[in-house]
UniProtKB/TrEMBL annotation:
<feature type="domain" description="C2H2-type">
    <location>
        <begin position="102"/>
        <end position="123"/>
    </location>
</feature>
<feature type="transmembrane region" description="Helical">
    <location>
        <begin position="219"/>
        <end position="242"/>
    </location>
</feature>
<feature type="signal peptide">
    <location>
        <begin position="1"/>
        <end position="25"/>
    </location>
</feature>
<keyword id="KW-0812">Transmembrane</keyword>
<dbReference type="InterPro" id="IPR013087">
    <property type="entry name" value="Znf_C2H2_type"/>
</dbReference>
<keyword id="KW-0472">Membrane</keyword>
<protein>
    <recommendedName>
        <fullName>C2H2-type domain-containing protein</fullName>
    </recommendedName>
</protein>
<keyword id="KW-1133">Transmembrane helix</keyword>
<keyword id="KW-0732">Signal</keyword>
């Protein structure tokens, strides 16, 4: 019986090993796809509502806190550390209109919602899921629903819910701005009650965010300035064209009268 050549055996061994590796390599993406689709970690905290709450805090509270040079204590539920999505949100790069990049792995997406999904599936470990770190839980106090819905507020006021939200709101005021911790904290405590808590009533007399926001005034300021600039330049353009027209008109008149004078003797 002929002995099989050693080279052939080695070749067959290597070929089968590489084939196996290749098959695994091929299956790898589908396995990860399965992971990406199926391994959705359950988090009982709405990212959307947490985002809305953060936006409200940024717009209607932080300008006043910064102006006072006050540092929010970590036990306050509005402190950035108490928002489980903060780290992920800060790793969002909005590179262009339709380009959202993941700050952890640099993958890009067309829309923000796909990046959110990617965060949920791939960077779950970056979530700070310890107890009481859900910013959406204080949405009732911060009026997230009113801000999130574009429709005018027409739903019937529920006195029990209003009282509950007011209570939550007041507890936020005392934990974030304890009145016995200096004059800045005292002032901010009163401001917080006026800005967020007073409107939790069914009487309807209190305006939402009655102290306004710093951002909005600055945006309004920019819009007004741009409008004034446009109007001014239009005015100057009009004046220039008008004067040019006048000049041309008088020149024309002069020319006509001159030609009239020349024609007279003949
Ligand atoms: Zn990523």
């Amino acid at each position: 019986m002929a002995k099989p050549p050693t080279r052939l055996i080695v070749f067959l061994f290597l070929f089968s090993t590489f084939s196996l590796l290749e098959i695994h390599g091929e299956f790898e993406p589908s396995r990860t796809l399965e992971q990406e689709q199926g391994n959705v970690h359950e988090v009982h905290c709405s990212r959307e509502r947490s985002k809305a709450a953060w936006k409200i805090v940024e717009e209607y509270l932080m300008p006043f806190v910064e102006k006072e040079g006050y540092r929010i204590p970590s036990r306050c539920r509005l402190h950035p550390e108490n928002d489980m999505y903060r780290d992920q949100e800060e790793h969002k790069i909005h590179a262009a209109l339709n380009e959202w990049r993941c700050g952890y792995c640099k993958k890009t997406f067309y829309e923000e919602k796909y990046l959110d999904k990617h965060f949920d599936n791939r960077h779950y470990d970056m979530l700070n899921v310890t107890h009481r770190r859900c910013l959406a839980d204080v949405c009732g106090a911060l009026h997230c629903d009113r801000v999130m819905s574009s429709l005018p507020h027409k739903t019937k006021c529920n006195p029990a819910a209003a009282a509950r939200n007011k209570h939550l709101c007041e507890s936020l005021a005392s934990s974030c701005f304890p009145v016995n911790e200096g004059s800045a904290a005292h002032r901010l405590n009163e401001l917080f009650l006026r800005q967020f808590c007073d409107s939790h009533s069914c009487s309807g007399g209190q305006k939402l965010f009655s102290l306004g926001s710093k951002k909005k005034t600055s945006v309004l300021y920019i819009i007004t300035s741009v409008l004034i600039l446009i109007l001014l330049s239009l005015f100057y353009i009009f004046m220039y064209l008008y004067q040019r027209g006048l000049k041309r008109g008088t020149q024309e008149l002069k020319r006509i009268s001159r030609s009239g004078q020349k024609k007279k003797p003949s």
